UniProtKB/TrEMBL annotation:
Pfam families: DAO. This is FAD dependent oxidoreductase domain-containing protein. Residues 6-166 form the FAD dependent oxidoreductase domain. Transmembrane segments: none annotated.
Amino acid sequence: IGGNKMYTQAAEELNFPFKRIGSFVVALEDNQIKQLEEERKKGTEDGVPGLEVILDKKKIKQMEPNLTDEVVGVLHAPSAGLASPYELTFALAENAVMNGTKFFRNHEVVKIKHQDYVFTVRTFAGEFQGRNLINASGLYAARISRMLGLDYFSIMPRKGEYILFDQYCQ
């Protein structure tokens, strides 16, 4: 919730595209309306602003004409936004470097120790120490987390393709 509020200012300061477009959770059957209400209540309790369950089909169609006519209701979250994950990642990395962060790529981690508020990361290339540690190890994130005693998630790799076009491409 706090991060959502920061995106507008961060987009301006770090120069990445961000647009608040809102989002819908869609119900296609009447028995799903109760779930929308529960999600609205939970979200409101968590501090998500402006959540609204909309049952008026005409209003829903005006807000999003591409939805199927079978929609019986939606949970509208107007504060939801959209950012390019690529541009956001590069903007954050550039800002981090400007603030003294160093990135060490292609350094296989063999051990991590956390003691007295300091992380010691041992790699085949040597040891690194710091107060903060960001696990940006991709497919190896679960393995790195286990080195810290965190074993509550796993990585399920899959193949795919991404195409990144130049922003000025016609």
